[in-house]
Amino acid sequence: MTTTRPRGWLRTDRSLRRFDDVRDLLPDIDNPSPIVRLTRVLSDLDLGLFLKLEWMNPFGSLKDRTAAYLIDGLRDRGELDGKELIEASSGNTAIALAALASLAGTRLTTTIPDGVPEEKKIILRMLGAEVWETPDDLCPADNPKDGAIALARALAASEGGLRFAATEQYENQDNVRAHYQTTGPEIWRQTEGEVRWFVAAYGTTGTIVGAGRFLKDMNPSITVVGVEPEPGHRLPGMKSFKEARVPGIHDPDVIDQTIVVSDESAYRVTKDIWRREALMVGPSTGAVVHAVSEMGAAPGDVIVAMSADSGVKYTSYFEDILGEEGKPQI
């Protein structure tokens, strides 16, 4: 005799890696993104260098955390009901917002610089997002009325403000809170309190401010290092504050040191990580690992560097970097 069981009787059980909803895979202190030691790249420095692999989050980047907190904040303040989301993004926040919006029964409109890799734009459209491209940076310092942020704000104000709920990741403290409450505590627990350096690329600065602040609250001697690209760079998601406006959520008091990294160095180290560590990281990871080689850590120091996303979304960029390398020579 067959017993009839109710639909969904096998509920979420993290110990079995069984989940009811993809949102159950979002990282937190009890479900952290992994940290993996680099044993070949920079091995001559004898460091305890770990990458925090944020591309193992369900939507593929550290922005999964931010997106979840941005949406929860809108909902808690009663600003989401019946509205679509709008956000200016270089891709990763928009991807996570688009995925979470679909699960919440709404959709995302995103404004995005046209220089963002085509792979990200296609992913966004696959998730049902409406994608508006702009010819400029997210918010160029020389003319802040141009760029994706300005367009997103103009769209948010259209139709009497009734259509869109703006997530405003560059100004919204929920971005910082996401990393203060998840990324920082995860790192502290995963390193058993031994972390002495925290390294992250400059973007919205939510990650470095939030996680860095938490880590300094736990141990004020921890050194927080920000990694900045050169002006005119081709490192999506990273910000040069010489050519882009500093985000409203940025807190320079959290940051002890800033290291500027060239595209050449970032892509060289990215390729090295792929080939020597078998970690398929994005170019910002190459930038932060190169910065580690310049920041003055002592042998044996435990360092956690953020690996923001994977390289899968940058294959068109990598094709340019590789050129003819690896192709059959006839």
Key traits:
single chain, 330 residues, alpha/beta, Rossmann fold, 2 domains, 4-stranded parallel beta sheet, 9 helices
Structural summary, described in words:
The protein has 330 residues and is an alpha/beta fold. Helices cover 33% and strands 16% of the residues. The protein is built from nine helices and ten strands. It has a six-stranded mixed beta sheet, sandwiched between helices. It has a four-stranded parallel beta sheet with strand order 5-4-3-6, with helices on both faces.
What fraction, in percent, of the residue positions are helical?
A: 25-40%
Give the oligomeric state of the chains in this entry, treating copies of one chain as homo and distinct chains as hetero.
single chain
Taken as a percent bin, the fraction of beta residues is: 15-25%
How confident overall, as mean pLDDT? Answer: 93
Provide the number of structural domains. 2
Q: How many whole angstroms does the radius of gyration measure?
A: 20 Å
Low-confidence stretches: none
Quickly name the level 1 CATH class of the largest domain: Alpha Beta
Shape: globular
Topology:
Elements: E1 35-37, E2 48-53, H1 63-76, E3 84-88, H2 92-103, E4 108-113, H3 118-126, E5 130-134, H4 148-157, E6 164-166, H5 173-190, E7 195-201, H6 206-218, E8 223-229, E9 257-261, H7 263-277, H8 283-292, E10 302-307, H9 315-322
Parallel strand pairs: 2-10, 3-4, 3-6, 4-5, 7-8, 7-10, 8-9
Antiparallel strand pairs: 1-2
Helix pairs in contact: 1-2, 1-5, 5-6, 7-8
